[in-house]
Design goal:
This protein is α/β, with parallel strands linked by helices. Helices cover 36% and strands 23% of the residues. The chain contains 21 helices and 27 strands. The strands form 5 sheets. The chain has an 8-stranded antiparallel sheet, with helices on one face. The two termini are 29 Å apart. Bound molecules: 2-deoxy-2-amino glucitol-6-phosphate. The site of 2-deoxy-2-amino glucitol-6-phosphate (AGP) has 15 residues, from α10.
């Protein structure tokens, strides 16, 4: 998630911008930049890396002026570089942007054909040129911005300045947050409240489809269609640290709640509803290899390995290509069977996990194409792979992975459909049906979050447990593993995930009244068999927490707690079952008072063996 800040008033804009960007550093970024208007001219300064690099650059060439915009970039299109850093400029116009412009390539071609010189790899740069072109035709800054955003498809929170209107700042919002800070003869904008609190606690939020024209003395809000909007100013009472977590107590619970939005972001531009197709231009390099592809190897670690296990089910179901899954730490010493007819898929949030990266070497030696599913743009694995399918979860601050996991599942779903269609196993109608299911996934995920209150109650009853079992079958067995990992890594309770059918082969010896058992039991083709497992547990005094999409009487007879999720395709259920397990782990950990965001002994990215 990029960070945007803007200021207009009588203070030193450069200082206000840097201070605001520092309060947004928690969002993660790889470059930064500021721009100001002074003496009828635009001045800009950008730097790769941390804000200190930008401050150092500014020390050499200070930014004068009392109106400016600033940005911390979390790369989505184009590597981290000064050229790709924001603000982006076209003539007298400078723009900063948080979001994803889906149709930027077409706009880029149109602008270039019209003589515009675009120099970056970003989607954002097209916005500055569109606005500049509109202003050149005689529109003022607000009208030019309105006309330009009418051409954009995708998500955007933008702030725009022009040397032709030195006292005015224009902002616009679609699907990505913009908050306006209202001061005394000064006004601010930001992606998030923390950037404003040093100067004002009076804020107003833009809604989707709204833009604001801001001077030192006035904030006027309109819809993209020009209708005036009266928006009340609200008083923020949060302390700065709470504000960084969006009012949540921890980053982990904030990131759990971000999942519906990041699922939308991850699928943005990759589902063509009208054609009923999955659209993955990032994998164009695979097209010529798919016909001769004989197998797929998924390599990952930890939570990403659990995503890969679900990926095996999805890819085999959609393409009938055999899929093997391995831990990076095991794979690297296995002298694997790979050749040019294999496909390696590396799944990694950070893109820096040493054990996963090591697998890539094996593929290189054997001429095997490598696709990476990563969350961090230009990370080591992303750079070294042949193709990258980025999840767009935004920075995941909490060590325990949540939104990265569900976006990995989504990316694997898209990959499976993409392969299935191209190997000829899925018909166009099949693909269209699955695409339609995916369109509803974010709101299904939103509905899973509604079980939060019930889960906080269940969690209190589990906080004293010393051991827990998680059971699942089929495509949901990996989710039992993931639920167990979430619990153990943040609450320090020993937890194991097992295939439910394995209980009679040993684990049932563990069952007594002290052993809570979380069972994933959607109403699918193995429901009755899993119910039998539950009855075996209940008859031995085990405590059952059932997660299901159909809470019938037979379940109520055996389960101490029932957590409900919405019914959905069996291919989407793993993702939906995950969310209650994330919430359960979180509230058990909170009840136990552990360091939820930074659990003991753990690192966010394991960059060593
Ligand atoms: C998951 O909650 C853990 N933080 C850990 O298992 C993590 O998934 C694993 O280290 C892999 O990291 P990666 O996705 O960045 O490669």
């Amino acid at each position: 998630m990029c960070g945007i800040v803007g200021y207009v008033g009588s203070r030193d804009a450069g200082q206000v911008l840097i201070s605001g960007l520092r309060k947004l550093e928690y969002r993660g970024y790889d470059s930064a930049g500021v721009a100001a208007i002074h003496g009828g001219a635009v001045q800009m300064c950008r730097a790769v890396g941390k804000l200190d690099n930008l401050v150092e650059a500014l020390a050499d060439s200070p930014l004068p002026g009392t109106i400016g915009i600033g940005h911390t970039r979390w790369a989505t299109h184009g590597k981290p570089s000064e050229e790709n850093a924001h603000p982006h400029r076209a003539g007298n116009v400078v723009v900063i942007h948080n979001g994803i412009i889906e149709n930027y390539l077409g706009l880029r071609d149109e602008l270039t054909a019209g003589g515009s010189q675009l120099t970056s790899e970003t989607d954002t740069e097209v916005i500055s040129h569109l606005i500049e072109r509109e202003m050149s035709s005689g529109k003022d800054l607000a009208e030019a911005t309105r006309a330009a955003i009418g051409r954009l498809e995708g998500s955007f929170a933008i702030a725009v300045l022009s040397a032709l209107e030195p006292g005015r700042l224009v902002a616009a919002k679609n699907a990505t947050p913009v908050v306006i800070g209202v001061g005394e003869n000064e006004n601010f904008i930001a992606s998030d409240i923390p950037a404003l609190l040093e100067y004002t606690r009076d804020v107003l939020f833009l809604e989707d489809g709204e833009m604001a024209s801001i001077t030192a003395d006035e904030v006027s809000v309109q819809t993209f269609d020009g209708e005036v909007v009266e928006r009340e100013v609200r008083r923020v009472t949060w302390d700065p640290v709470t504000a960084q977590k969006g009012g949540h107590k921890h980053f982990l619970i904030k990131e759990i709640h971000e999942q519906p939005q990041v699922l939308i972001d991850t699928m943005r531009g990759r589902l063509s509803q009208e054609r009923g197709e999955v659209v993955l231009p990032e994998l164009a390099g695979l097209e010529s290899k798919i016909a001769s592809m004989k197998r797929v190897t998924l390599v990952a670690c930890g939570t990403a390995w659990h995503a890969a296990l679900v990926g095996k089910y999805l890819i085999e179901r959609f393409s009938r290509l055999p899929v093997e899954v391995d831990y990076g730490s095991e794979y690297r010493y296995r002298d694997p069977v790979l050749d040019e007819h294999s496909l390696m898929v590396l799944v990694s949030q950070s893109g820096e996990t040493a054990d996963t990266l090591a697998a890539l070497a094996a593929a290189r030696e054997r001429g095997t194409p490598v696709v990476a599913i990563c969350n961090v743009v230009d990370s080591s694995i992303a750079r070294k792979a042949d193709m990258v399918l980025y999840t767009r979860a935004g920075p995941e601050i909490s060590v325990a992975s949540t939104k990265a996991f569900t976006t990995q599942l989504t990316a694997l779903y898209l990959l499976g459909l993409y392969l299935g269609r191209r190997v000829g196993h899925l018909t166009a109608a099949d693909e269209a049906g699955f695409v339609q299911e995916l369109v509803h996934l974010p709101q299904l995920a939103e509905r899973c979050l509604k079980a939060e209150k019930d889960i906080t109650v269940a969690a209190r009853g589990l906080a004293e447990a010393s051991d827990m079992l998680y059971l699942g079958r089929g495509i949901n067995y990996p989710i039992a593993l993931e639920g167990a990992l979430k619990l153990k890594e943040i609450s320090y309770i020993h937890a194991e995930g097992y295939p439910a059918g394995e209980m009679k082969h040993g684990p049932i010896a563990l069952i007594d009244e002290h052993m809570p058992v979380v069972v994933l039991i959607p109403k699918d083709e193995v429901y009755e068999k899993t119910l039998t497992n539950l009855r075996e547990v209940e008859s031995r005094g085990g405590r059952i927490i059932a997660v299901t999409d159909d809470a019938g009487d037979e379940l109520r007879d055996v389960a101490e707690t029932i957590i409900e999720i919405p019914s959905a395709s069996s291919f989407l259920t793993p993702l939906l079952l995950t969310i209650p397990l994330q919430l359960l782990a979180y509230y058990v950990a909170v009840a136990r008072g552990t360091d939820v965001d930074q659990p003991r002994n753990l690192a966010k990215s394991v960059t060593v063996e």
